[in-house]
Amino acid sequence: MDILTRSFWIKWRSEIVILHALSCWFIVGLIWTIHAVHYPLFADVGSQNYAQFQAHHVERIGKLLLVPWALEGITAVLLIVVIPKKQKLLVIAGAILMAGILALSGLVSAPAHAELADGFNESVHSQLMNANLARTLLWTMRGVIAGSLLFTTFTQKSTLKIERAS
């Protein structure tokens, strides 16, 4: 089956790099918005409406994140296959950053949201903000890596096209 071969995926390298960068930077923008705007507002909702607000937040953010985060993850795995050896270190660094994001999400952020589902708690909110700051910075670093991969993919392609034309 051709789809299981490395040569099949290498033909799609440019598209994979583009999709990876787009999905990653979508999430970088979203995570900064959540961190700088949305999460701080949790403290201002008030106890009467907080549980409903928290439930709506989790539901809506989950729907918004589902496709881009899945696409980022799938393309991150594909990058391991398609990126030339000289750029593998960037891909591995990006994978390590993603592991950190997933660990923070599963071990701190998700449990904090579960605790906040019962009502606002300043201590839990502070934990969520601290974990999210770390996730925001990790995702920003992933965005820089994705941008670097995008830049080198297309500058190398341009160089290859010029060499072939000569």
Q: How would you describe this protein?
A:
With 166 residues, the protein is mostly helical. It contains 5 helices and no strands. It is elongated.
Keywords:
5 helices, single chain, disordered C terminus, 166 residues, mainly alpha
- Helical content class: over 70%
Unreliable stretches (pLDDT < 50, length at least 5) are 159-164
Hey, roughly how much beta strand do the residues contain?
under 5%
Query: Can you give the mean pLDDT?
Result: 90
Radius of gyration: 19 Å
Question: Would you report the number of β strands?
Answer: 0
The biggest sheet, with number of strands, parallel, antiparallel or mixed sense and barrel status, is:
none
* Order of H and E elements: HHHHH
Helix/strand-derived class? mainly alpha
List the topology elements.
Elements lengths: L5 H5 L2 H29 L8 H33 L5 H29 L5 H44 L1
Helix pairs in contact: 2-3, 2-5, 3-4, 4-5
Short account of what is shown:
This protein has 166 residues and is mostly helical. Helix content is 84%, strand content 0%.
